[in-house]
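#lab-general

N.A. 3:47 PM
ok so I finally got the sequence cleaned up, no stray characters, all 475 residues accounted for. can someone with queue access submit it? mine expired

B.Y. 3:52 PM
send it over

N.A. 3:53 PM
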Amino acid sequence: MSVYSFRIMAACGAALLAAAAAAAQSIEPAVFVVTYPNAAQGKLSSLTVNPDGTLNLVGVWDTSDTGPQAISLSPGGRYVALSHGTANNIEEKVDVFRVNADATMTFVLTKLVPDSPLDVTWVRENLLAVTQTKLSGDNTVGLYEFDPATPSLMEVARHPTGRFCSSLAMHPHGRFLFANDSTANAIYTIEILPNGASALRGSLPTGGIYPLGLGITNDGTKVYAGGGISSGGTAVHGYSIDALTGLLAPLPGSPWQSPGASPKLAVASEDDRYVFVGHGTDATLRTMRVESDGRLVSTGYSFDVGLQGTLGKVAVMESLVFVTDNSSAIDGKSGVYSFAVQIDGSLVMNGPDLFNTGSSTPNSIAAWNPRRRLVLAVSDIIMGTNAEFRLTGAPPRALFGLAYSLRGPGRVRPNGWGVTIDLAQPQQAGPIRRADGNGQAVFTLPVPIRSAPLVWFQAVRPDVKSNVVSRPIRF
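B.Y. 4:20 PM
back already:
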């Protein structure tokens, strides 16, 4: 792999800024919301995000069934998947919608999957993970290959995940999928290989505490979960993630106590300084600070959504955090709250109140930030061979650079690039390249002899960056 000083990439920044301006796309930041699981017609809402954090309702679309359970946005922001569940013990529906440039939605397909898909998450742009959650018996996670041309979802793998699997979390570097079991109280690690194959790598018991609402830090080093009503009803717990194997180990001091009642989810801020913990019983969103060793400490800042059980789900976008209120009971209003996260972890509401989603019970939410619209895929890294890199989501014929690190995640902002690169001591891999007319690029680079066990990659261009991809260096 040809290596140049990363300062060369910074020197090219001015030229790429000009190219970025010429090829800029008009896609806006957006959030997508599905209604609470109930007997009413399911709804999918789309809202764009203004620079001040306020929201604009774009439209509302019917889903294929009642009771949407979960929503997930594909890494490139092109597709939304949502799952339904009514516990008929046979099969339920997963819908896929295409996201258009103006944030409107176009229905693509409905797929019947084993009952009941309480959670769904995109693994890659063409691979979807769906839970099979049963009240009794063995639970599983199914992986489905998505072909938008057909269109179709075809099951390609299925892995056991204990006795009650209701939460999935995809590692931001694209290698590991985590699944919970809140009956036997464990978290499972599934490795996703570059060719799309997958393998169950192991599980970690969580010490009798429910692992609910799994949330992974953006640097990929930690996963946090709410303990629900278990362990006194105030526990939030966390685990380190082994970068090579994906296996978990308890963080120092875990579990920690939240001031709220029944923590049910944990979502990291984009800079990983805070974890936002949603609660079921008191319906509060609380901010907990992440210490250098991964410990969580309450900041004392919170927001009360209202009635018990009305806090739905949480999503973040840069310094914004969104939370749904899924019921209009008592106060007569439901929708999405938008907050600006302050330097001390406090939450300042954007706008005078929550924002209307055009549906009565908004619950699960996904956020799309066009500043991270590039999607990078990397083949196996085998010493002495060529590695293949695929980039999608760039503006047509846009210039971009490929950075790599042997040190792991980090935060570096090179002069002239207008973007923070999420790698420690990044260097340039190969020359500056140009995407084709469809905003895609496929290229190969030779892999040199390296002693490091892992290498991390990220594609970057002015003001925009891709996901980080980590790969073991194999012999």
